[in-house]
Amino acid sequence: MARAFILMGLLALALVLPARADMAESLRREFHSWSELGITVLTDSSLKGLDAVLRSEQTRVLVLQTSPQKLEASQARQIMDWVRQGRTVWFYDARLAPYFGMRPFMLKADQFRGRPENGQLGDKVHPGMATVVLATGSHEVLTGVGQATIWLPELEPGTYGAVVVEGDTVPLLHFMADSPALAALRRDGRGLVVFKPLLWVKPLSGERFQSNLMEFSAGFPVPGSGGEGRLGIPPGPEAPWVEGRPAVQVPGEGTLVLATPLPSSPSESPEDSRGSQASKASKAPPPPQAAPNPALPDRVEIKGEDPVAGRVQNREFRFETSSESLKLPRESIRWIQVGDSSLDLDRLETREGRILAGIWMDEELKIELPSGVRTVGKRQISRIVIESNP
User: pTM of the prediction?
Assistant: First the structure.
């Protein structure tokens, strides 16, 4: 199984013995009441009321708990026009991300650790996963926020949604700094687009994160760490106009393409200042590299054994970074280093000198030895060096 992005110690803390982090009553009083925030929730069954909701002067925040099959492209364009006038939309299903200028990233169950948990999103109860995330950005809505316990709905069997950090997408919650974002926002016009999960407000910093996000989305600056002062320039009809740089061009006429391919190279997309280490590493000029020597064997370092010399039989290797989903032929790879623990990413160097940080997704390696072909599980491997031609 692929290693998790998430820190197992934090997961145990939040999911087995949830830590209480209730806000002080004095701080809670610094936030506006629910009735003042102008929040309206729309689900599949109430989506027919969209026109009336957007016409209402009371609506500041539209919470869109709908499925991609129910939301029409024309409705999404209508929502974005409304957002640009100074309002906010929240959406929860990552497959809707291209409608709102973000690029979806579909996580597999073996890419992170969590606890199976059913939850209600919109009109339906879905299977999903409870897990812990970190606040790793610097946006004002993260004031006073450390970690949160969230719930990710299962979108397809064994698949959960996140968004890629590119364009003007600002990450809020991660498994770790180099992972896709589990919550993110972007400014467009005078308004705000938010991708977020459901979360528990009592464990860890959930209440502070939810309160900050509601406050900011409704057009109010965020209270400081202890309630002192106000932070940020929130959306609103009088807010400065922001010309958006969407990671995905918001679709025009037609329907949403649910499976949006990731870019073939990080250099194709504008890089956020918090972009992945893999993207940054890829921009370094490649050093001269020697071609693989067919006379030299490949080397596999196996935990608890002497290095094994033979010929790697895998024809290609699947590798995931926060911005790419790659299938690399064996002849393009110089080495793969498997992370020592769940804190460490795997690393890979190509023969062009590009170094990637992410997760090697294959479960096993086949290596031809004089005694026959040996199969080694990924978790047994420390390092692979490929020297021979296939």
Answer: 0.63
